[in-house]
Amino acid sequence: MKKYIQLISTVALLFLFMVATVGAQEATEDQSQEKPKKETTESVQPSDKPESKKSDSAGSEQEEKGDADSGSSKEKLKNKSDGKSEEKSDSKKDQDKDKDKGSDDAETKSLAEKARTSFRNRFNSKKSQSVSKFSKQSDQFVSIFDPILGSIDASTLQVVSGTRQVALGTVVDADGFVLTKASELKGKLGIEMPDGKVLLAKVIGIDKPTDLALLKIDATDLPVGQWSADPTPQTGRWLATPKAGEDGKATIGVVSVDAREIPPSKPFIGIMMEDAKENKGVRITQVIDNSPADFADVLVGDVIFKLDDYEIKDARGVRDAIGQFEVNDRVTLGVLREDKEIELRLNLGEQDKISPNSKRSNMQNSMGSVLSLRRKKFPMAFQHDSMLTRKTCGGPVVDLSGKIVGINIARAGRVSSLALPVSEIRDIVKELKTGDKSPEKVNKAEIASITGELSEMDEKYSHLPNKKTVLEQKYNQERARVEELNKSISDLKKRLKVIEEKKAVYGKDLKSLKGQITNIEKTRQRLEADLQQLRIGSR
What we know:
Blueprint: H1 2-32, H2 56-89, H3 97-124, H4 129-133, H5 139-143, H6 146-154, E1 156-161, E2 164-173, E3 177-181, E4 189-192, E5 198-200, E6 202-207, E7 212-216, E8 238-241, E9 251-262, E10 267-268, E11 271-275, E12 282-287, H7 292-295, E13 303-307, E14 310-311, H8 315-322, E15 330-337, E16 340-347, E17 349-350, H9 351-354, H10 359-365, E18 378-384, E19 396-398, E20 404-413, E21 416-421, H11 426-433, H12 439-442, H13 444-460, H14 464-536
Antiparallel strand pairs: 1-2, 1-4, 2-3, 3-7, 4-5, 6-7, 8-9, 9-18, 10-17, 11-12, 12-13, 13-14, 13-15, 15-16, 18-21, 19-20, 20-21
């Protein structure tokens, strides 16, 4: 009975909120314009009734259209009432019924179009404070949901790594069991309690298909929210997510797409390639930055001739081989580099995140939000438009009855969030509690593979430390010799400089002396000529 009273109170509050919204908008119009306009708009009233399926953007457009049409209908009634009073006061305005009907239809269409235009202008205008004031994320609107969020708030906790929040958690058992999103967990984990105290948290189970993790903290008598018995919420239902907004407030949204399977991303290496000669593999023509191939030191010019057990003859063979694996699978590339065969290991990435062709769409899709690391490949999830970020996933989402209908599992796009329905979670929680799905057990094969790879590397490269020591000694010896030679060269350069200076002085003196000798030779020749002339008496 209390639940029904609570639901009736919530609906009544929503109705009062709608009336207040319309009043605030009309007051804003009266103050901002000299003449009142005929068209009015109404805020969207939350309703727990299902609506037709539509995409996020289509839902938003339909929401605007519905508001505008609602305002037009009110104006239509108002105009009809005015028309009747005029007909009573002035008999000249009486017309045939058919003509009146046609005129009313035309006027209604005109008013509807004006209402749509008016709504869009108000919504987009910087002066439209009344509309933004009563948006879904405003304090006034969120406060309407306070009666149904009281107990759920207490069972929604913050998951932290160090001092940083990484996710939200949902209390699923009073004895310290908290459900959250697995792929966001890292480092030393803790749960921040309502009083601000942080309790150490241990991961006791993970479920890879749903990306859920069950944490255990040393606490008892924790509040647990009531889970809905319905399978999944339908399109058009109003939802609330506690502690997902700014300053720990709730965020409000609407189911935009019914529960469905979310397909995985395509695996990706991160290379551009061309067929090698004689069908002997593919030659790498480009390695994409920050891709699995880049991290594995694949180089331009390498020829891939094998991928795990698959022989590679051409580019199609590479695509076919990759198609047999999933994202994050570890594979081995057989590579021919400078006529030498080597093996390179790498983890396959997501094409949607790495491919240059997806760069622009990813940027647009993440505008205004921080997307989850894993936002694809879920067995069943419904989509809603509540504003979340990657660190506010893992918490509960509730309907107007205050019951948990799902766990937010991913921020998937600019206006889309994904939640796992409770029907998919109940059995998983029971299984996670048993400890049979601890990280060590779930990842047993991967742990063994990487451990073996590390042992192989240790064995293969065990001689490298000694070789490194020897090379360091030789390097230091040669460096000392270089320093000694550089010092000798410096001394030689100084001596050479002195010699060059002396050489310059000697050269100058030599030039002067040569000039003197030349002058003496000329004087001697002239004197000898004079002497000869005197002896023969020609002078």
